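Per reviewer request, we include the raw input and output of the structure prediction for the construct analysed in the revised manuscript.
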Amino acid sequence: NVDPRDVAIGPDGKVYIAGCCGIYRLDDGDLVPVAGDSNPPDTYVDNQPALLAHLTNPKQLEIAPDGSIYFVMESESYTCNCQRVFRVTPGPDSSRVVSVAGNGVRNGSSTGDGGPATAAGFRVPVSLALGPDGSIYVGDREAYVIRRIAPNGTISTFAGTGTSGNSSETGKAD
């Protein structure tokens, strides 16, 4: 059984499903674990073998052309160390779950612009999208910004002021 939180189609045409504590692939009707060990974490530990990683509500699956799976974990916990953007590296035998952005700490605002994405702070990263140039765009709820992770690993605020609400009906997104 799987408790679906998100669904994505990979470059291989296969269906990938984010469940409560893991990510799965449908393979000829069979549900095949890709990441997660079905045990919600007390805290996330980085760079674990994919099938041993403790995941909490992975969602917003995005699958890159190379088969890497990007996702965020839905958690408003201050203690889970999971306020990050994650990547499942491709490869059935050597696959790992690694952080590509976020230091794991739930901050009062987004921090770290201009520096390495892995050192940046997020409030509650809840959505993401992959850009055609390899950039990753992250919606940071409660920080009221969209962050951009450049292909070189640098993070910046792409849109938003950090204040709730619309600044105008038209005009710049900041």
